[in-house]
Specification:
It is built from 65 helices and 44 strands. A hairpin with a 6-residue loop joins β38 and β39. The chain starts with a strand and ends with a helix.
Length: 1904
């Protein structure tokens, strides 16, 4: 029984303090005045009576009622029911204080009557809201209605009313005013009482919002309720606590928080608080609080908070059932005939149904939890711990965030301590867990069955609150309506304390005499319910019985010493151990062998067992949720081997490297589990041996510890004191002995074998992290601690003691925690603390002996380290480190999709040399043959190095790894072997970094080759060629001196481009050079004699020969130079003073003096002004290159054509000079001078056009259309390119943009010679789009490939010069129709784009790990990289420029800084236009001229030194090579060099093996003295400084760089397709050969090959198999299986060697064969299947690659050329449409019928039909094999029209033209064929062709 009310309090407005800004309340009276002993009076009640603050009102308010909850220091809740009404303020004191002292004088108007609040407060420990409302209401009614009942009586009766807390009884009470109330108590007080509050909460907030709040409360977040109603706040908070049952909320709980205490909301701990909406604004800035607005029905979750929700499918099921309760109509809302009655239950019932859902939910979440309780003490009080890891493991919920947080929370630990004991009273939840779990599982998927269950539970919950039917016995008076508004109300009287106290005393005396009613608690044993689901692994196959059988067999073999058998099975076992079942099987099997006392093993057995243990532990998490590590713990102290006299090594010393051993919670769980087993054993033994033997005979042995504990607790009160004491001591000594045992065990697993190494501490940070009872220390924390242990003290003892100390600290913390929890006495604990350091010390001593002995053991068969072959001058920097090479995302080497042996992972060593990083080793899989795996790349190509932790299954557990990525498309994932100390790994990384980013370019391999490595670090570089060095120094000095003389006033500062922002200084330097004053250079002065040698070198280097070849001027005196030469070679830049990044000699227009050049250069970025780099020999159009403009000059000039200028400013003059410069270039063009005032190019263009073939017209790209494509339109975003067929639509769309433009006006204006472009107002009326003249307007239908119509194209007027500029730079430019040049704005990509694109390309081609994500497939990554888009863009622009040059217009490429994209475009244009550059010499010249001389920044873009490290790797040159590769694929017969040549350059331009691609410009090369190194200077035969010399030497030796299909057409201009669908991914990016590493260091691969071949030859006795196995990604296919021609060369060479002849150079042989073949081919019919077909240079048929079916990249013997059209087709298709024209049949040309296989000679002949029939062209085929001449209607036809049998032919003679013969054909082109049956008349295309036919037929006849 307990008091209904503890205190009654009267609280009023504090009139004395009302002068202050906020009013205050004060307690007027309280009863009883003395505090109860068991229940002190709560403080601060007055704050809670008016939570929004005490205020006066001008009118009376209706009375209010609410219940606030206060929590005292003992966490007891007090319910304060506040009934508030308003009274007039009695005295005028507040008014006086308002009006001040001089009341009379001030004249302030008296305020009207004011009303102050007064509260009646009941304080109780019970929560009976309605009863409190009635009682306080009654007291108010008696006062206000003036009933004749003393208020003291009411209050006295109220305070002396006693009621039971629970039990379900009803108690009637009366306060003595004729009232009567029935109080209903709940049956079980452990279940919360909720009334309707839960249903109301769901009604206010909705299902999802409440579930969010529910999860937030369970995972300990802060929750704040807002409402304008105080009672609703209290109800909502109560509801939230009700649905959390059986968990109890144990943080701050304040349903109504007064405004004065709002700072409580900033507390760091979780809370559930309610606040009036009045304070909404104050709650807005709370960043970590979830706010539930009850009035608005919203829940606001801040961004920084993540609420873990219930695990699926539970969440979904809960939502479904809740919606069925709250909205039953939802289910049938769509039914045609919905049931008539579907009303939801009443609020009270609904409330219970919702609570039942949450009970059902908790039963599912916690099912089986009692099986994971560890009971560690039974007496005097039970101590119980929950084994979280085991629970999560058994339920397979380790990944579940929500459950993890709940189990770690305070509420759950309260749940365990309250509900853990096994002997106690039980409630609804216990019954649910014990009996209904099976039912819940079965009904899980069926909402209706779940609903039925929920209703049953709801009924029980309802019965608990309302055990009897409702009784209508209440009778409580209420005041009359509106009584609070009466004008004259008496104030609430002062109550007589004595009267009330008398009531209280009287009741107290009466109670004393009563016998206390003791409610007997029904205690019983708590049932545990079914164990947790035995979750089956999702991957059932992985743990099939077969695998477990393999594990058992392997273990048996090991213990039977069948080593070979065990070794075979081991890899399979290690793979199988990833599965849980397999790991459990392993622990069971090993246990069997320990029980048979065969725990001492020999070395080999020990090694195998350790490998298996390590593998098992490696796949366990640090939590050990399946108890595998726990099961292995006794085993690692059982298995051992004898090392020497008295020294035994146990398994634990080899399995320490696992995070689980450093996890405090693992040890705690293990300890508790063991203690529980011992305590269980203790009582089981006691039962057997004790006096109660007879009674307990039936006790089963398999009683669980909880059952035993329950039995013991039941008996406990009946035991004697001594017996109780004895049991307590027994239990304590059990715990104590286990603690000692665990201190030993922990020292075994925490002290490393080599205590000086400190390894474990490093990896786990063992000494530093504290273990909180329920928190996990993750590896990341452990990792961050590692650093603190990395310091070396220098003394070994100090270091080992450091290990000892941290282990001692760790064990001490563990012992403290478990012993205090298990109630071990302090004396025992102190004894333990003294023992631990001794235990650790003793263990260290034994370990030292073991460590010493284990070092003497022979190493277990680790493969021998294989040394790599090195280049001459390449040296090892470090000895090889033993590592494992792990497979990455490419699965060929692992035997993935392609099949084949798993070559990776491989075991070997990593070698760091001065040039490369090399891995050499053998596969770890014992079933793979003896292949050697080599993977290497140049150090200079390293782009990213990343630490990785290796989780790949290896034999040993490996500590750390590195992932190294190279821009030669190679990736090395290595894991250091355990024998590699971590400091060695660090040294390796430091060396690697130093070699990758040397301080200066002198530190690169190309310079240090041949010096010892020490010099690399010291940078002592001695130059041999001193004279040259001084010379270049002089040159630079002169340039600098020249610069220093400039006028400071003229210095301007150009803001640095983004390129150089990182190094601003260099930018300023460049400007210093570029701003040279006019007077400082005497340009006409002759070159001093001392500079002559340098000058001649400059001449050679600057590719003057090429300029002479192109007719671009010679370097001679101005007098002898002919005046009519349009261009001259200028020496203005010979000192690199005008532009530091240009070469010394430049081609400029003849008419422009050097002084003008000086000024023009300032308008361009980096001073890179326009210079000529190539001239079209046919049209004499020139190609110029320059950087973009500085925003002034021509573009600036275009932007403001009519800007008024005040006098001739400098910019004005430069603009004019620029115009002059451009005009001079235009004047140099013959087409311009020929036009002599005419303003169209139509004559020239049409001539050019008509020369092309009709079929050519179909394929010829239309420049206008191309131009539109390149310039892009608004409709097509940059980066999206139309492919193939969609081009048509795209073009049409673009064309419409310029429909209304016309250039007729411009064409009709007469144009004379003129000086200035700056006309007066010329552009006011007319401003067509830029590029209009090019884009043209399509009047007629587009061509088949989407180009503009032919006729219009010819008439279109052309500009003489096109300037290709960057669109972003040319914004707002206007075009003058009268200018003779035109600016074409194109969108170019940024080099940053190239950098990011390349990174993505590398990740696509060499992924670091295999990904199952469908968005990460190879093709998706390739697409996202945008690499092919960039290639497309470059090719597109290049083809456009080629077309313009070919049509007679000059082009100036003026993009970015002129050294990246400009260089790519200019080089490609020359390559496409000029066949010379497609030869080896030409290509070299092209690269030297455009890339090296014109200053592409190789060092900067390749990040070759420390300074450029931050800029990152940007492969602009690689992109160019890729473009060349694409063109090579489309025109395989046009290039002298092979694809391998391009790959070779791609590899070596980043390798730094040669000096060719170092440094950023000729200026820098001269400064370093590397520009003109003499060729004889090589230190040895093998060391080459220039990649070109190396290629030349190699080319003489072997045809590896030669393209056998090379058969160029004279002067052919190539126009490749550039659509992405036509582009191929270069195999340079994807191929690798693991057998030899990259083949680009030729002597390493092929030099070794020759030696091996010799060794093979000697052993000829054994018969050799011809069969070859070629493994993908392992063998070099072109070497193992060379193409036909290379094979023949090899055979010739070996024959010559056998015969002892001097072997002829391959090139000579090839040229001879080619020459003889040419002569033969004229006489003899062509052999279809021989290489001669390829060599013939008169192959005009379809030279594009798609018509050619070539086996492999080089030509094999199955070559077939498919001829695609009857007339010859020049190779100029440029759009995707051309591809589709091939007939399908030709695609199968290699699978034709036998009849077409023997085509010895074929072509078109006109044949005269029979009598009166006309001559018709037919396709004739001469077939030597079948000895017949067949003819077809057309080339493509498969059906033969007729056959002439050659056996019947009598003669072939010259013929004469007859009637109807083809016109305009030579008479000699006719010949006749006479057969036995008839006479045939033929006509060939010309006499030569006729002769060929006659000879061929004749030779057939003679052969027969």
């Amino acid at each position: 029984m307990t008091r209904l009310a503890d205190y009654f309090v009267l609280v009023g407005y504090d009139v004395d303090k009302s002068g202050s800004s906020d009013g205050q309340g004060r307690i007027l009276q309280r009863f009883p005045e003395k505090d109860w002993e068991d229940n002190p009076f709560p403080q601060g009640i007055e704050l809670f009576c008016q939570p929004s603050g005490w205020q006066l009102f001008t009118e009376r308010q209706p009375p209010t009622f609410f219940v606030a909850v206060l929590t005292d220091i003992n966490s007891e809740r007090h319910y304060c029911a506040c009934f508030t009404f308003w009274e007039a303020v009695e005295d005028s004191q507040p008014l006086k204080s308002l009006s001040g002292e001089d009341d009379e004088d001030s004249g302030i108007i008296q305020p009207a009557q004011m009303f102050a609040p007064k509260s009646l407060v009941l304080v109780s420990q019970l929560d009976h809201t309605e009863v409190f409302r009635n009682c306080l209401g009654l007291i108010y009614t008696v006062h206000v209605e003036g009933l004749k009942v003393p208020l003291e009586t009411l209050i006295g009766n109220l305070l002396t009313c006693f009621i039971p807390i629970a039990g379900g009884s009803q108690r009637t009470i009366t306060l003595g005013a004729g009232d009567r109330q029935v109080i209903q108590t709940p049956i079980n007080d452990s279940l919360p009482v909720s009334g309707c509050s839960v249903a109301l909460l769901f009604r206010q907030l909705g299902i999802i919002n409440v579930l969010y709040l529910f999860c937030a409360a369970l995972t300990e977040h802060k929750i704040l309720f807002l409402s304008s109603s105080y009672q609703r706040l209290t109800d909502s908070c109560r509801a939230l606590l009700s649905i959390m049952f059986p968990l109890k909320y144990c943080f701050t709980y304040i349903p109504i928080l007064p405004g004065k205490l709002l700072e409580v909301l900033c507390t760091p701990t979780p809370f559930i608080i309610g606040v009036s909406s009045f304070f909404r604004s104050e709650t807005q800035e709370l960043l970590d609080v979830i706010i539930a607005d009850l009035d608005g029905g919203t829940v606001t979750i801040p961004e920084c908070i993540h609420i873990s929700l219930l695990p699926e499918p539970l969440l979904h099921q809960t939502q479904t059932v809740l919606s069925m309760i709250l909205d039953p109509e939802l289910e049938v809302a769509d039914h045609a005939f919905p049931p008539s009655t579907m009303e939801p239950s009443s609020l009270k019932i609904q409330d219970k149904e919702i609570r039942a859902v949450f009970l059902w939910l908790f039963a599912q979440l916690f099912q089986g939890h009692r099986w994971c309780l560890h009971i560690i003490r039974i007496h005097p009080e039970p101590v119980i711990r929950f084994h979280k890891a085991a629970f999560l493991g058994q339920r397979a919920l380790t990944e579940d965030d929500f459950l993890m947080k709940v189990l770690d929370g305070m509420a759950f630990s309260g749940f365990v301590s309250e509900r853990g004991p096994s002997y106690r009273a039980i409630d609804l939840f216990d019954e649910l867990i014990a009996t209904e779990v099976e039912r819940i599982r079965l009904e899980e998927g069926n909402p209706h069955k779940v609903m039925k269950h929920v209703k049953e539970l709801a009924e029980q919950l309802f019965k608990n609150e309302n055990p009897y039917p409702a009784v209508a016995m209440h009778k409580v008076q209420r005041p009359t309506e509106g009584s609070h508004l009466r004008l004259h109300q008496t104030t609430f009287p002062h109550l007589d304390e004595v009267t009330v106290q008398l009531f209280i005393d009287h009741a107290a005396a009466k109670q004393k005499n009563e016998i206390p009613a003791v409610k007997s608690e029904k205690k019983c044993m708590v049932p545990s319910g079914p164990p947790p689901d035995a979750i089956i692994d999702s991957n059932v196959l992985a743990n099939s019985a077969r695998r477990l059988e393999v594990i058992r067999n392997c273990i048996t073999y090991i213990f039977e010493n069948k080593t070979v058998e065990a070794k075979k099975l081991l890899p399979a076992v290690l793979r199988a151990l990833k599965g849980r079942a397999a790991r459990q099987c392993l622990t069971q099997e090993l246990n069997l062998h320990v029980q048979q006392n065969r725990a001492v093993l020999d070395d080999q057995q020990f090694d195998y067992i350790i490998r298996m243990l390590n593998c098992t532990l490696q796949d366990c998490s640090h939590m050990d949720e399946h108890g595998i590590a726990a099961a292995l713990l006794p085993l690692v102290t059982a298995f051992c081997r004898k090392l020497g006299a008295g020294v035994t090594q146990f398994a634990y010393s080899c399995v320490q490297d696992h995070s689980v051993w450093t996890n405090m919670q693992f040890w705690e769980a293990m300890f508790y589990s063991d203690v529980q087993n011992h305590i269980r054993a203790l009582y089981l033994e006691g039962n057997e041996n004790g006096e109660h033997h007879q009674e307990h005979e039936s006790v089963p042995e398999d009683k669980s510890a909880l059952e035993i504990a329950s039995e013991q607790r039941r008996q406990w009160p009946m035991l004697s004191k001594d017996k109780q004491q004895e049991l307590i001591q027994k239990e304590e000594s059990t715990v104590f002995s286990q603690a000692i045992h665990y201190a030993n065990r922990m020292s075994y697993l925490l002290l490393p074998l080599d205590t000086s190494k400190n390894r474990l501490l490093r990896s786990s940070g063992l000494g530093d992290f504290e273990s909180v009872s329920n928190s996990y220390v993750t590896n990341s924390i452990a990792g961050s601690m590692a650093e603190s242990y990395d310091t070396e003290s220098g003394f070994e003892d100090a270091e080992s003691s450091d290990v000892a100390n941290s282990v001692v600290r760790f064990i001490n913390r563990f012992v403290d925690k478990v012993c205090t929890e298990s109630g071990v006495t302090n004396e025992h604990l102190k004894a333990l603390h003294l023992m631990i350091p001794d235990i650790v010390q003793m263990h260290i001593e034994t370990l030292d002996a073991v460590h010493r002995e284990s070092k003497r053991l022979p190493a277990i068969q680790k493969p021998k380290l294989l040394l790599p072959a090195l280049l001459v001058g390449e040296e090892l920097v470090m000895e090889g480190l033993r590592v494992y090479l792990i497979s990455d995302g490419r699965d060929e080497a692992t035997g993935g999709v392609m099949g084949g042996p798993p070559l990776l992972p491989a075991e070997g060593a990593i070698f760091l040399t001065t040039y490369r990083l090399i891995f050499r080793g053998t596969p770890t899989d014992p079933l793979v043959g003896e292949q050697v795996v080599i993977r290497s790349f140049p150090i200079a190509s390293l782009t990213k190095e990343k630490k990785i932790s290796v989780s790949v299954q290896m034999d040993q557990f490996i500590q750390e790894g590195l992932q190294l990525r190279s821009c030669t498309f190679q990736l090395m994932k290595i894991a250091f072997d355990e024998e590699v100390a971590s400091d060695l790994a660090e040294v390796f990384k430091k060396h690697l970094h130093k070699l990758r980013y040397p301080q200066h370019v002198h530190g690169t391999f190309a310079f240090t080759v041949g010096q010892s490595f020490k010099l690399v670090v010291e940078h002592k570089h001695k130059e041999k060629n001193q004279s040259l060095k001084t010379l270049s120094k002089n040159l630079v000095k002169n340039a600098k001196r020249t610069m220093s003389r400039q006028h400071v006033t003229r210095k301007k500062y150009t803001p640095p481009t983004w390129e150089n922002r990182s190094s601003l200084q260099s930018q300023v330097d460049e400007d210093d050079i570029s701003e040279v004053d006019q007077s400082s250079l005497t340009l006409s002065s002759t070159i001093k004699s001392s500079d002559r040698q340098t000058m001649s070198n400059v001449v050679e280097r600057a590719c003057c020969k090429d300029y002479q070849r192109l007719g671009l001027g010679t370097l001679s005196n101005s007098l002898t130079r002919s005046k009519h030469e349009p261009f001259r070679i200028s020496t203005i830049n010979r000192m690199y003073a005008v532009c530091r990044s240009y070469p010394g000699l430049l081609i400029v227009p003849q008419s422009i003096p050097d002084s003008t050049i000086q000024r023009i250069s300032r308008c361009y970025r980096q001073n890179r002004f326009p210079v000529v780099c190539w001239r079209n020999s046919r049209t004499k159009a020139v190609l110029l290159r320059s950087a973009g403009l500085h925003g002034k000059g021509v573009v600036g000039f275009f932007k403001s054509p009519n800007a008024p200028t005040a006098g001739p400013s400098q910019t004005d003059s430069t603009s004019l000079e620029q115009e002059k410069y451009l005009q001079a270039i235009i004047n140099s063009m013959p087409s311009y001078s020929d036009a002599s005032g005419r303003n169209t190019l139509s004559g020239f263009t049409s001539a050019h056009m008509s020369s092309s073939d009709s079929s050519d017209k179909q394929r010829q790209p239309k420049i206008g259309a191309l131009m539109k494509q390149v310039m892009g339109s608004k409709e097509e975003p940059p980066g999206t390119f139309s492919r193939g067929a969609s081009v048509l639509g795209h073009r049409a769309r673009v064309t419409s943009l310029s429909q209304h433009r016309t250039s007729v006006k411009a064409r009709n204006l007469p144009r004379g010679k003129w000086g200035s472009i700056r006309g007066s107002g010329r552009m006011s009326s007319y401003s067509p789009d830029i590029g209009t003249r090019l884009a043209g307007k399509d009047t007629s239908s587009p061509q088949s490939n989407g180009g503009p119509s032919e006729a219009h194209f010819v008439q279109q007027q052309r500009a003489y010069l096109y300037i290709i500029g960057d669109k972003s730079q040319l914004k707002g430019t206007k075009q003058d129709p009268l200018q003779q040049w035109e600016v074409v704005p194109i969108e170019v990509f940024d080099v940053r784009h190239v950098k990011t694109s390349f990174k993505k390309l590398m990740k696509a081609c060499i992924p670091s790990s295999t990904s199952t994500d469908p968005n990460m497939t190879y093709y998706r990554c390739l697409e996202e990289s945008d690499w092919l888009c960039l290639i497309h863009k470059v090719l597109q622009v290049s083809v456009l420029v080629v077309g313009l040059l070919d049509s007679g217009s000059s082009v100036m490429v003026s993009l970015e800084d002129g050294w990246d994209i400009s260089t790519q475009v200019v080089s490609l244009v020359q390559l496409l236009s000029d066949p010379y550059y497609r030869t080896m010499d030409g290509f070299r010249l092209l690269v030297e001229k455009e890339w090296l001389s014109f200053g592409h920044r190789f060092s900067h873009r390749g990040a070759q030194t420390l300074a450029s490290q931050s800029s990152g790797f940007t492969p602009v040159f690689l992109q160019f090579l890729d473009c060349v590769h694409q063109i090579h694929l489309q025109f395989p017969m046009e290039f002298e060099f092979s694809q391998y040549y391009l790959k070779f350059l791609a590899y070596h331009y980043v390798s730094n093996r040669f000096r060719t691609f170092l440094l950023d410009s000729d200026y820098e090369r001269i400064e370093l003295g590397v520009m003109y190194e003499e060729k004889g200077e090589r230190k040895s035969q093998q060391m080459y400084k220039s990649v070109w010399d190396y290629i030349d030497r190699l080319n003489k030796k072997t045809p590896i760089f030669f393209n056998y299909m090379f058969a160029p057409e004279d002067g052919e201009v190539l126009k490749p397709y550039s659509f992405i669908s036509n582009l191929k991914v270069w195999d340079f990016y994807t191929n690798e050969t693991l057998s030899e590493g990259p083949s680009y260091d030729w002597e390493l691969v092929y030099g070794r090959q020759e030696q091996m071949d010799e060794s093979d030859r000697q052993d000829t006795s054994a018969p050799k198999s011809k069969r070859k196995i070629i493994l993908p990604c392992y063998d070099n296919r072109s070497k193992v299986e060379p193409d036909a021609i290379t094979k023949l060369f090899q055979e010739m060479q070996s024959l010559e060697m056998e015969l002892g002849q001097v072997s002829e150079k391959w090139k000579d042989t090839w040229d001879k064969i080619k020459a003889t073949q040419r002569t033969e081919s004229k006489l003899e019919s062509r052999h279809s299947l021989s290489s001669s077909l390829l060599m013939s240079s008169n192959l005009s048929h379809h030279r594009r690659s798609q018509g050619m079916y070539v086996k492999e990249s080089r030509v094999g013997s199955t070559l077939n050329l498919s001829m695609d059209s009857e007339s010859s087709v020049t190779a100029t298709p440029s759009s995707g449409m051309g591809r589709g024209q091939q007939s399908t049949s030709t695609l199968y040309s290699q699978f034709q019928t036998s009849e077409s296989e023997h085509r010895s000679f074929e072509g078109i002949l006109y044949k005269k039909g029979a009598l009166l029939k006309p001559w018709k062209p037919r396709w004739f085929v001469l077939d030597k094999t079948k000895h017949q001449l067949r003819y077809y209607d057309a080339r493509q036809d498969k059906d033969c029209k007729g056959v002439i049998d050659l056996a019947e032919v009598e003669s072939v003679i010259q013929g004469t033209p007859t009637m109807g013969a083809p016109k305009n054909i030579d008479e000699k082109a006719f010949f006749d064929l006479k057969t036995t049956k008839r006479f045939y008349n033929f006509c060939a295309q010309d006499s030569q062709n006729a002769q060929l036919w006659m000879d061929s037929v004749q030779s057939c006849l003679s052969d027969a």
